[in-house]
Amino acid sequence: MVTGVVYLVAGVGLLLGAFLPRLLRERAVSAPMVVLLVGIAAGWFLPGDEPIAPVFQQAITQHVAEVCVLVSLMGVGLAIDRPFAWRAWWPTWRLLGIAMPLTIAAVALLGWWVLALSPAAAILLGAVLAPTDPVLASDVQVAGPSVSGGEESPEEEDDEVRFALTSEAGLNDALAFPFVWLALYLATEGPIAGWGWHWVGMELVGKIVIGALVGLASGWVFGKLVFHAHWDTLRLADVGEPLLGLALVATVYGLAEVLHGYGFLAVFVCAVALRAAERGHEYHGRLHDAIEHVESVLTLLILLLLGASLSSGQLSALSWEGMLVGVALVLVIRPLCGWLSLVGTRQLGAREKVVTAVFGVRGIGSVFYMAFATAQHQWPEQRTLWATVTFAIVLSVMVHGVLATPAMKALEERRGAQQPV
Asked: Does the reported pTM lie above 0.90?
């Protein structure tokens, strides 16, 4: 009986994943919204006395979310058509360098003031909720690599909004890590004078540099191998081997972690570097499709479990103050910080800046960081933190799921009307 119910729920989730993208195309409802609601309904019928909420199953949650984010980062990196250049990626740097620190500070201040969190817990809340999500934001990101011989989409290729949101999500999932460690050091290591320079040198700078170098080197080496190797047996691009993407996810992430770098950053940089090795080759499309299928299954699993957890005590510690923090993040803090960061950028028009600022979707990355931090340290405010983060994710999925399709469609229609006939 128990096994049957579990398989039934899993089967329904996979069926939704197969049918929903087509059914909901051009509609103001996203697939994550529907799957999350199905998970909430399924939570009432799942048997067993063991609660499945992430707040109670932190180790499992951490590793499942970790794999999901890693696979998504590889897919996002392969999907970006634009060559890496400082000026061409200028909106991305503004979002990372201005919007993200401002968001962390604003959420931390609100958590300390409204939720009465300790300074360490408040910074953790800000760090966990700061990164935008590469997993749940498919409606506002680039669809996939444009390759020779495939269907190219000039609209998406030139869409600064989609590019900015995609590249931001690919990078800030790694760049939130230094601030998670800052919260952990504050909670466990005593006065900042004893560890401040170590945090700056290693967590803020060193691990970022190591992760970027590992990713860059790995992408360059494997790009040379699969596209230009002298031996036919090594040129996997010639036969279209789709498993390379997943193999690189594990290899690059593991290497970066062994070398004490940020593995999330390494995986994304590796994908971008691999794409640059032979930008127009159709093999990128094969890799991206394989990654996308795995990502879809993992995302469905996490959304179903997250939805089911809402009826298993995940929100039991949610207060009106926590709801206020979540609402402020989604409706005020991210839009305002995102807009401020983009002021003066020439690549984006006024409406595009607003849309880019608003659509900072929160999701699986926040689940991972919360599970990681609570596995490292037992926080007195742990239940409150989990409830607030979960509420913010659910709110983001719902609000952005409703707004994404009409907002992006309006921008595309406006762009089309402005182009000369």
From this structure: no
